[in-house]
Amino acid sequence: MTPTRTAPATADVIVIGGGAAGLMCARVAGLRGRRVRVIEHANRCGKKILMSGGGRCNFTNSGTTAANFISGNPHFCKSALARYTPQHFIEMVERHGIAYHEKELGQLFCDDSSKQIVKMLLDECADAGVRIDTQCSVESIERIDDGFRVRTTLGELRAPALVVATGGLSIPSMGATGFGYELARQFGHTVLPTRAGLVPLTLSGKHQERLADLSGVALPITAHCNGREFSNFMLITHRGVSGPSILQISSYWNLGDALHLDLLPQGDAFEILKEQRSRRPAAELRTTLGELFPKRFAERLCDIGFTSRPMRQFNDPELRVIAAQLQQWPLIASGTEGYRTAEVTLGGVDTDELSSSTMQSKRVPGLYFIGEVVDVTGWLGGYNFQWAWASGHAAGSAV
């Protein structure tokens, strides 16, 4: 993994990007007897793998289907996902003796450390004869008669097949750049508009002021936007809201879209309030809500939305109004935290110009795009890694 000053002149496959998709592609191609070179501009491979899942890497989701992805063509990902399933990756994890567990909703994490996943991939690449150059930047790429000429800071390299596995724009502090999109445009590909996905939402003005001092408070909700809904926890932050349910819905939200929260997703709010009124008629609404929500959040609800008085003083129509507000609470977001904290990038290389079975360009023979650089974006919960493995496997099987 130590960079050298010169590079061999030729290879069968050049993979630009030593992340999840790139390493999987290199491994598969190497096992097929291809001479593979991986070019990684950072000082080590798999940085996003290392930081994922709080350092334990949510490496796949056992329930992965095409429905868990956002793309201009929702059918594009089906072929690759069908041919390399979560079970295929799990079998490799188990073969390397990596202990793992399911956290929730099919999300699989390492028991110990995400470093184990990176080591596994690097070991697999080494066994397949793959050469990896880190701290190696690409200076230029040209199409030549027999493939591609790649000029790097370690020298010039040529190969008939070039795989772009450069990732998206999310988390620039980890080295993310728009290089893959620039490369796609250079070779005549359409790049669909990109934006931050799986990202915290920001609030402004009175909406932010009402919640800012509740930073750190979390509660289960169901977020609704544009016909989609996600149930999980919401976390209030200094600048807005985050947590799994918010990250999920953020990928479907655009500025100005209506966004509503069901603050009592565990049941029918009206029936819950009626039961509370029957059980403790003398209790104030503030106190009752304090049993259903974190206390400080309940108090804030009463401060900004409800008049608190003993529960017995609320008739059924009044309770219905309160219940409706609790289950259709409007969240007026002003934006997102952007690529700085986004887990993924929505948009990217247009799938209409790629083969769904091989990831090869329909415009330039020998050119492949895999992983996050492609317009395929998964939900939170291991789906984006599964796309990386599946798309990398598809290209690696074809180059």
UniProtKB/TrEMBL annotation:
Pfam families: HI0933_like, HI0933_like_1st
Annotated source species: Tahibacter aquaticus
Keyword Protein biosynthesis applies: no
Transmembrane segments: none
RsdA/BaiN/AoA(So)-like Rossmann fold-like domain span: 12-397
Protein name: NAD(P)/FAD-dependent oxidoreductase
Entry cofactors: FAD
PANTHER family (UniProt xref): OS12G0638800 PROTEIN
Keyword Flavoprotein: yes
UniProt entry keywords in alphabetical sequence: FAD, Flavoprotein
Domain of life: Bacteria
Domain RsdA/BaiN/AoA(So)-like insert positions: 195-344
Database matches in NCBIfam families: aminoacetone oxidase family FAD-binding enzyme
